Amino acid sequence: MTERRDLAAMLQPLVKSLIAAELRVLEEHGISMWSYVVLSALDDSPIRTQAALAEAIGADKTRIISTLDRLQEAGLISREPDPEDRRARLLAITQDGRSARRAAQADIRANEERVLAALSAADRQAFLRAAQALSAMPHEEIVG
């Protein structure tokens, strides 16, 4: 059996570099990583409440309030009282928010395409399939 490095040891430098590249792009677009995560979650599926959003993105619901405040002030999301529960807020991405998220994502993807171009077409497709399959595994299954 050929020796290889542990998966985490191989992937951590790649992930660290990809995050650094994303942070640069997001800064150019004037949004934080948490803002991008929130906009992506709201753009990808209709998450209605702040509590549901926090659960979906793996954040503490009290810690995302400042991010939601900034996004609302910038006109990128709307937050309205839930008519069925006045304590809850209903969230929605605005058209400006959708445009900001998609513009940032396009620039992130352009850099990813540049990085993936280092692989042959077959290796690229295999890598993307494997990354999708592994990233879909439940946390508990990976941790054991």
From TrEMBL:
Molecular function terms in GO for this entry? Answer: DNA binding; DNA-binding transcription factor activity
Q: Which SMART domains match?
A: HTH_MARR (SM00347)
Where the record annotates domain HTH marR-type, the positions are: 4-136
Q: Which of UniProt's keywords are assigned here?
A: DNA-binding
- What are the BP-aspect GO terms? response to stress
**Gene3D superfamilies recorded for this chain?**
Winged helix-like DNA-binding domain superfamily/Winged helix DNA-binding domain
Enumerate the InterPro entries for this protein: HTH_MarR-typ, MarR/SlyA-like, WH-like_DNA-bd_sf, WH_DNA-bd_sf
Q: What is this protein called?
A: DNA-binding MarR family transcriptional regulator
Whose protein is this, by species? Nonomuraea dietziae
Lineage of source species? Bacteria, Bacillati, Actinomycetota, Actinomycetes, Streptosporangiales
